[in-house]
Write a structure and sequence with these properties.
Number of domains: 3
Helix content: 40-55%
Number of helices: 13
Shape: globular
CATH superfamily of the largest domain: Butyryl-CoA Dehydrogenase, subunit A, domain 3
Distance between the termini: 38 Å
Radius of gyration: 21 Å
CATH class of the largest domain: Mainly Alpha
CATH architecture of the largest domain: Up-down Bundle
Length: 383
């Protein structure tokens, strides 16, 4: 029998993160202005949320991916911007787990298990990126690689550790790059949504990297890069579900309190139908997401479906949430407008919906179009 009931440990994590998320929500407008406070970062690390899926021998909790998605839904229910900002290092950690060998995982992830962990990020996107190669290049020089080029939309900007994708001898490669004077972050981007999140361009001016820092991705680099982006895409989709749930629950409460013609507006058929559609979007996005998490190691097409559906469902819910509040939906006295801005920005933190739809169609049509694409054709706007 298929069961959607949470296990005891998952319920405990959900309840713990939910309490933390309640504190995040109370500060969400402050986060937009000045970022996430260091005290929240400390609590996030103490709860073990940055290392939730990391093996125990590397200092993590070895939780299944679906448990991590449950946690990230709760965080985004509190504040989507804070959820992304607090989880900025997760993409770095996930890249090391998916693309690094055992020795690299032990060495590169050890700092993240310390009491005060460093920051990490992925440098993938470029301002003028083609679908066949990166402009950023790496050249072998003795026992080192020399990295040169520019990356755009790097989450965290001046992070302590980066995973950088570049061309090496005509093929895509990934490198673990520590912060140095040759790694130069640019001016922070101004975002319409998720204003608590720092994103910036980063330039690499002949950065020298030891050969041990090249992540080869096991026996199939392209396949493992796709799995890496699928996993972080599902994490982002969980944030969309949390955001959508926030928008739905707020609209539900608002329309039950506001009255017209002697009764709550929620009791009018048009409003009640809109609320029903919002609820169905939230629930369907969550269940497809959890299914994708259980199938991630054997099939990426379900992950692609889950990410696209979560992006589309969350936008519909957030948009309807603004609509149901009427004029109040677009003033900053209420959070509905923030969630609408945030959901659009969140959709740009994943691989493009068009590529994900191609992956889904590829599975249904039994073609080789999506899998034949080079790994650098996976071009998320933000990474």
């Amino acid at each position: 029998m298929i069961s959607f009931a949470l296990e005891e440990e998952q319920t405990l994590i959900q309840e713990t993160v939910r309490r933390f998320a309640a504190d995040l929500r109370s500060k969400q407008r402050a986060h937009e202005k000045s970022g996430v406070d260091a005290s929240f970062r400390k609590r996030y690390h103490e709860l073990g949320l940055d290392l939730l899926t990391v093996p125990t021998e590397l200092g993590g909790q070895a939780a299944p991916l679906v448990t991590s998605l449950i946690a990230h839904e709760e965080l985004a229910f509190g504040d989507p911007g804070a959820a992304v900002a607090l989880g900025a290092a997760q993409s770095y950690i996930e890249a090391v787990l998916q693309l690094g060998d055992a020795a690299q995982q032990q060495r590169l992830l050890a700092p993240f298990a310390l009491t005060t962990p460093p920051t990490g990020a992925i440098a993938f996107s470029e301002a003028k990126m083609s679908t066949t190669d990166f402009a950023t290049s790496a050249k072998k020089d003795g026992n080192e690689f020399v990295l040169h080029g520019d990356k755009s939309f790097v989450l965290g900007g001046a992070a302590d550790h980066l995973i950088v994708f570049a061309m090496l001898d005509g093929v895509p490669a990934a490198f673990a790059v520590p912060k140095s004077s040759a790694v130069k972050p640019g001016e922070r981007y101004g975002l319409v949504g998720l204003e608590a999140v720092v994103t910036a361009p980063v330039s690499f001016e002949n950065v020298r990297i030891p050969k041990e820092n090249r992540l080869c991705g096991g026996d199939d680099f392209a396949k493992n890069v796709r799995r890496f982006f699928a996993r972080i895409g599902l994490t982002n989709a969980a944030r969309q579900v949390g955001l959508a749930r926030s928008s739905y629950e707020f609209a539900l409460a608002y329309t039950q309190e506001r009255k017209a013609f002697g009764k709550p507006v929620a009791h009018f058929q048009a409003i009640s139908f809109a609320l029903a559609d919002m609820h169905m979007d939230v629930e369907s996005a969550r269940w497809l997401l959890w299914r994708a998490a259980t199938e991630i190691d054997r099939d990426l097409s379900t992950a692609a479906e889950a990410i696209v559906h979560a992006n589309e469902a969350a936008f519909r819910v957030a948009d309807q949430g603004v609509q149901l509040l009427g004029g109040a939906g677009f003033v900053k006295d209420y959070p509905a407008e923030k969630w609408l801005r945030d959901t659009k920005a969140l959709a740009l933190f994943s691989p493009p919906d068009e590529w994900l739809q191609l992956v889904t169609a590829d599975g249904e049509l039994e073609s080789n179009l999506a899998t034949a694409l080079p790994s650098c054709a996976l071009q998320p706007f933000f990474t």
